[in-house]
Amino acid sequence: MTPFVRVDKASKRFGANEIFRNVSFRLEEGQIFSVLGPSGGGKTTLLRCLAGLETLSSGELFINDENLTRVKANVRQVSLVFQEPLLFPHMTIRENVGYGLKFLKLNKKEKNRRVSEFLQTVGLSDFGDRYPRELSGGQKQRVALARSLILTPKLLLLDEPFSSLDRELRVEMRRWVRLLLKEQNITAVFVTHDQDEAIQMGDVIGVFREGTFEQIGSPEEVYENPSTLAIARFFGDAWVVDENSYIPRRHLYLKRNEDHAKVQWKGDIAGIRFIQGLAFTEVLLTTSERIVIYTPEDYQEGEKVFVTADPSYIRDFHRTGERG
Amino acid sequence: MFVRRKPWLMLTPALLFLLLPLYGLWSALWNSLTPDGEVTLRVYSALFSNTEFLFSFFYSMWIALISTILSLMIGWLMTRFFLFYLENTGGKLAVWLPMIFPHFVWAYLILLLFREGGVISGFLPGDPAFANDPQGIGIILTYLGKEIPFVILMLLPVYLERNRAYDDLVETLGGSFLSRIKDAEWPFIAPVLIETGLIIFAFTFSAYEVPALVGATFPEMISVFTYDWFYSGDWSERPLAFAAMVSSSAFIGIVAWILLFFMNKKRRNITEGL
């Protein structure tokens, strides 16, 4: 089966400045692809190239076997949802949602029907005649999403669309948007610098660093088997043993005694934290690194402990299986 | 208490400053209503049945309207298409330079270049005169020279601060270059453009020096016409001059009120909806 979206060896330069290189990925129809990477790493430029706002310096983009590499943004069936909602402030919510339909040859009745349908889809049926200034941040972003979805794009691009929302709303919006995209069977590329967001939103995660994908895989794969030291550090959930190996953090536990059969790091209890009702212990290691570990036992602040793991859990980067 | 009084305190200079023109307007109104010591509308009915005045009034309106619309259009096109050059210091200086010349200096320049046998018109076939001409081209040229840079300077900050992501948005939603101008630019610049146009219209409608220098003997713009009445030997024409001034001010006031009334709601949507 040929993939629905195919990006082959894409690269982008502005003069001598290389933004990204050798970017390739494939998506099935209806799949959500989270592109995870630090800010300023070229993710936004990648999206702009996919949307057609910038041209690729080399490489190709195929959607449904159609080569879109040279197709202009305003005829490409790709929609982009920006970081800010960017609603037209002088238009009502209805007019905003229906904006892109103006450029399609549809009769008025059909346009009205679609606008009503999508207002309902994003739960804002009662807000049609209001103006953007009367809406909250989350509602505005929902309108922006409806405005893109109403065009039934073959590929929807989302550029950190929740970054302007507060934390609680952000978590709620992730759940809601993912559900909506799945309901509508939309193929989407979702860019974020937040690993929780990437995992929550994506069927596939691509870790994008220094202008290329370092690893592409399911959230579990990337989380459990980071392919490089940098990815392990970036996720922060793998305990890096040395530059070649790591231990998934859930295999770490605390011990009061030294144990030569295990790998251990010495440290002091620096504090206890409660997260979602569970006790986590913060340990300050002698290497002056800090680590937070879930522990059911009671420890006192200042107590000497050993962060311990079974050597069999040590894994190498670039390798999947466990040692031994 | 201090906080409550503060806005008034801060408005005091502006209010004091307003006292002068308000007093002038009131005094003109009073003089035009009481030509013989008693309140009467006689002067106004005389004024509005005076064909010379009416002709001058509409002539001024025409010249002001043309000057305003051309300034806005050219100023907007220049800002829009040369934004890249206007952003840097050199570009800003080039726009500022015409701003520092007074209007009458600009008018002299037009006179030198475009009168009969002038530096430019002398080279044109037929040696046409574009200064002191009855069509008012000299006046319009002077105003264009001064007001286009003004329009650019008013629009420049709007264009620099405008969120350019709207251009991309329109494009990804299927819009063309024209829809980008219509939906991503126009709504944001329109309030400033209309306000600027209002300032230019009010000024060009009633300013004296430019039509006095490069205008024709006939027809005259309202300011020159009124001035002649005011300083003619015949004192009986003074109330007419006052009535003409009051009428011009009232006309500008009404135009401003109508435009601002329609702009305000739109502006509120734009400034609070971002």
Automatic annotation (TrEMBL), chain A:
Would the keyword Amino-acid biosynthesis be found if you checked this record's keyword annotation? no
Class in the EC hierarchy, top level: translocase
Looking at the record's lineage, which domain of life comes first? Bacteria
Q: Could you describe the subunit structure of this protein? A: The complex is composed of two ATP-binding proteins (OpuCA), two transmembrane proteins (OpuCB and OpuCD) and a solute-binding protein (OpuCC).
All residue ranges annotated as the ABC transporter domain in the record: 5-235
Q: Per its record, what are the GO molecular function terms?
A: ABC-type quaternary ammonium compound transporting activity; ATP binding; ATP hydrolysis activity
Record's protein name: Carnitine transport ATP-binding protein OpuCA
Pfam family of the protein (one):
ABC_tran
User: Known EC number(s)?
Assistant: 7.6.2.9
Q: Which UniProt keywords apply?
A: ATP-binding, Nucleotide-binding, Transport
Q: Which reaction does it catalyse?
A: a quaternary ammonium(out) + ATP + H2O = a quaternary ammonium(in) + ADP + phosphate + H(+)
Where does the record locate the signal sequence feature?
none
Automatic annotation (TrEMBL), chain B:
Stretches assigned to the ABC transmembrane type-1 domain = 53-263
Q: Which Gene3D superfamilies match?
A: MetI-like
Its chief place of residence is membrane
State the compartments where it is located. Cell inner membrane
Which parts of the chain span the membrane according to its record? 57-86, 93-114, 134-156, 188-208, 240-262
- List the InterPro entries hit by this protein, alphabetically: MetI-like, MetI-like_sf
The record's GO CC annotations read: plasma membrane
> What keywords appear on the UniProt entry?
Cell inner membrane, Cell membrane, Membrane, Transmembrane, Transmembrane helix, Transport
Superkingdom classification of source? Bacteria
Membrane topology, as annotated, equals: Multi-pass membrane protein
Give the protein name, as stated in the record.
Putative spermidine/putrescine transport system permease protein
Q: What is the lineage of its organism?
A: Bacteria, Bacillati, Bacillota, Bacilli, Bacillales
